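Board work, copied verbatim: PCD16 protein
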Amino acid sequence: LRENLPPGTLVTTLRAVDADTGIFGELQYAVLGQPAGEPGMVEGRDAFAVNSSSGELRSRLTFDYERAKAFQLLVRATDAGNASATVTVRVLVTGEDEYDPIFLSPSFSFEVPEGARKGQSIGRVLATDEDEGADGVVLYSLTKPSPYFAVNQTTGTIYLRVDSQPQAGGGRAKREPREMSLEVQARSPLPASRSATAQVTVDVTHTSFGLAPD
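↓ predict structure ↓
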């Protein structure tokens, strides 16, 4: 059952079979209480109602995946002679992508140090997502590919794709400050995931990135 559906949503129709004909073949259904038998299961007697004659099982609440993910209840079918059978019903709540990822900062600033090598990390972006399950997993990507930088999709670490080349002229002469801009996106691995972006400014003063060969 998907989270956030209104109370009264049909979960399933339970049906027991009684070989008697006539009144003794007519069954009445009822939800019984029982301790949840497995870790993570919530006792579901108060969360669901069963139609006594049709066996339709409906929700009595709107469920929140972040609070409860599974319910267990016992349903009994009884005939007019008071013979009965019971069945265990487990209802799993599935999540929806309710929350946008949120970057710890709307923008990040990093620097390419002099002499940095291919694969070297220059910084890390980080985002959180209040969803649980797969919807709460955060993956990172650059919105536009860069010849100089890449981002680790699971850690958010931004690293160099190439060696940092010293500027022509060398030495420690005063250099004009230069910056490059990247945009990083955070989203879950699921289709139609909510997403967020953050701006990354990289100081490339100490490398020849982006400069035409002299």
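DSSP finds no helices and 16 strands in the chain.
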